[in-house]
Amino acid sequence: MIETLGELVVSLLIVAGSGFTLVGSIGLVKLPDLMTRLHAPTKATTAGVGGVLLASMIHVVVRSGEVSAHELLIALFLFLTAPISAHFLAKAYLHLHRERERNFPPACHGRDWTLLDEPGEELPREDRPQPPPRV
Amino acid sequence: MIGYALAFGFAAISVALLLNLWRLATGPTVMDRLLAADTIVTNLIALIILYGIHQATSTYFEAALLFAMFGVISTIAYCRFMLRGDVLE
């Protein structure tokens, strides 16, 4: 009974995880430009791989009765590093195609975004962003 | 029951890999291709883990971990190269 239940959970997690992965790749192909395309693999694919890793962990428990935390390491690593690589991809895209993306929200303190700002000129001292006052 | 789920999983991830390959081949900008390569690495991790479930062994865990680490490192290194013209300054 408990083994059947475990197999059911593992099967559901495998189907859900690979379905999410497929949805992420469909989004990668269908969406119109890179800033929207970034959403699909970074969220759907990471969730899908997380589901497959969870299925693997539960499968080990069902199969041998031992608890294995190996897959947790991969899941933690992926969930921690997916936002970092997505951030770097977006930053490099903005850097390479700055003429395409001129409809940014405005940056504060009268300056452009750090990535697009021309270096060299410094603001006068009173216009610079001030650190918050100490309590 | 796990057999059917595994068959579905292998099929879905293979189709996902083909779609990623399409984006890798036709992506209009360099960053599209890099995003597709990063997604291919992530999907390969899922495929390796599914094969581990299929074979009922944990031998392939290290391969998946290595793929995860090197995939992220290479993506970030390439992005830094596009940003700064150099990887380590």
Automatic annotation (TrEMBL), chain B:
UniProt-annotated location(s): Cell membrane
Pfam families: MrpF_PhaF (PF04066)
Membrane topology classification: Multi-pass membrane protein
UniProt cross-references to InterPro entries, sorted A to Z: MrpF/PhaF-like (IPR007208)
TM region positions: 6-22, 34-54, 60-83
Keywords: Cell membrane, Membrane, Transmembrane, Transmembrane helix, Transport
Main location: membrane
Similarity comment: family membership: Belongs to the CPA3 antiporters (TC 2.A.63) subunit F family.
NCBIfam families: PRK06161.1
Protein name (Swiss-Prot/TrEMBL): K+/H+ antiporter subunit F
Protein species of origin: Aromatoleum buckelii
